[in-house]
Amino acid sequence: MTRPQDLAAIELLCSGEFPAEHSGSGAGFAGPGYRMAYLGTQSAEGAEAAGGTGAGLAGAEEYGQPEARVGEVEQCEAEREALRAQLTARWGAPGELPLDGLLLRSWERAEEIPEPWKTLSEEAGHLYLWRTAPEGRWLGLGITRTGPEQEPRLLAVVTETDPP
User: Fold this and answer.
1) Of these four, 34, 74, 85, 112, which has the most CB atoms within 10 Å of its CB?
2) Closest CA to 13 of 40, 32, 36
3) pTM value?
4) CA neighbor of 74 nearest in space, from 64, 54, 85, 59
5) Residue 66: CB partners within 8 Å, gap ≥ 6?
6) What is the pLDDT of residues 101-122, one digit of tens each?
7) Which tens digit of pLDDT belongs to each residue from 118-138?
């Protein structure tokens, strides 16, 4: 179920230098010390409708999304698990990082959360994390939050910034 282009995109994220300036598009975002890309199943219309960031809702089924949205979440979860298995074979068992606490710290306490973790906490509720070798960068894999205008998407991030 893993798409070869997803693994290729992750390889690309893991290689090379990070940009000096912050930038973003419907395909992801990047900045000093990090790169992020959306992977997997998404329509072009969904990518544009979802925009760059936003907290959205945590899960389609929990918030009464249409049955089609529940199917989209399940498809993303299956693709994430297939990618997780391949990444685990390469870098070992991942850690897990719940991101909701970072989002609350940012919103309720106005705490300064470093990028890419601030934006990731707005985009996803949970990440699997690996330490890549030999670079020692963090590789994260997750699913975006969903909402009425926001379909679920796989996302991958590579950063040299330690999680807060």
Assistant:
1) 34
2) 36
3) 0.80
4) 59
5) none
6) 888 887 777 888 899 999 999 9
7) 999 999 999 999 999 888 899
